[in-house]
Amino acid sequence: MPRKSLENLTESMFYLLMVFCRGPACGTDAAAMVKEKTRGRCRIGPATLYTILAKFEQEKYIKEIAVEGRKRTYQITEKGLAAYREELARLRQCVADAEGEPAERSGRDGN
Amino acid sequence: METKKAKKKVRLTPCPSYDIAGTESWLQRMAEDGWLLVPESIFGIWATFVERGPGDTRPVRYRLDAAQEPTGWIFGSSRPDEEKVAAFHEMGWEYVTFHGEFYVYRSFDPEAEELNTDPAVQALALKKVGSRMKSQLGTLIFWMVIYPLFGLFGNLWMAALTIGTGFFLAFTLSFLLSVAGNLRGILQLRKVKKQLQAGQPLTRPANPEKKKRRYRIYWVADLLLTVLWIGMAVGYGMADLDGAFTHPLGEYLDEIPVPTMASLSAEGQVEYDDWMDRGNGTVEVHRDWLLGSFYSITENGTFVMPDGTEFNGGLYVDYIETTSPWVARQMAREYVRFDKWKNFWDYLWGNSRYTDLSLSDLGVDYAAAYTEYFPTVVLAEGNQVVHLYFYDVNDSVNYLDLAQIYADALKGQQPQ
Known about the structure:
heterodimer; A: alpha+beta; B: alpha+beta; 15 strands
């Protein structure tokens, strides 16, 4: 069954919340910070960025705090922070679960 | 200095807007062939392209972005908001125009990030397009089915006979085609959304030529049918305004198959009221190749019945000769239903004037009598139907007598 929207954050959503935790930012700056943070591994295209920002605003994860010309600055909210922390805890649990597995096990033929 | 005007050309689109990958790859092919989509141009079933400048061999990528608001030149938005356009531009993408529920962007910069980098987020953006398409389908069904049905009070047989079954067939086919196109879009979008939610990128169509043929056949048929039914409706309206269907009884030379005031009169004489300019002593005739013939006779006047009583009032008779007894019975029932429901709110609140009247056995296939504003009789015999209502200020004529006279007429017997 397909998951409900924002039940889990996608990688792009998670990283965007992460950079908003640093402080207020506009959309394009936030996308650039994500690229820099992940050393180019996670890139956020403009359509993806604006869909996420609209969804975050709708879910009240971020709020618009300033508009300068065509540039809008957003700030993370308590709800957004909670969502980020929850996702972080979930990912930590995933990593912990993976680390609990024997290191070099191939997973094939029950070996 | 003389500047050479760039050449333009118009091309029919090969696929609907919701075929995102198909549209993107077509625009890309056009760009490779030296043609760029004209900014802010109409992009629907056709698109306008401009020739690329000499030496312009820059690689182009076209991408469709699901609009989060209704699009349109008049009732929707023809551009995304300027902040978004500026931000996209900053990231290497320029806005071109809109196509259906999508905004079209292009990039000449090979280094520019893909427009959509997260398939799950793209699926989220498509959700709104899907909702809008569903609401468009709802609107289509409301305006093309529910509203006309309420407007006609379910009087479908009669409307089909008077306006013509040709119109009805063209209208119904056009409606079904529009619904099918809309449903196909909704289903295709749902498929694309599932594909994206599963993390798979959009795939180019496997057989674009076959899809193109099917899509063009679809919209040509849709366009022709729409033009046909609108043309028929306008033609009918104009003919009606010109009085092509309504004739004064005195000038109508063909035989009228049911009694009129003159044939009910002992002396064959009627003194028509002169207070009505129109619709007095007239017959309205419609003939339909599938359903049969319809006569609507309107008379207001005074005449003497064979028993010596004087009728002074109005007599309104519809006579239909259908192509089958089954259709005749359906039409008779439809008359009764229509009269019962035409004052819907009165009927709903129990204030309806509709009251059933008793009838003796008239020896016909179907008979009903009731009073709504006036005493009304509906009869069906074989493939014929009669609906009549009347008023008589002298109160000398009974609906039972008229019911018997018209039942006899339907059975081929002369009025007594």
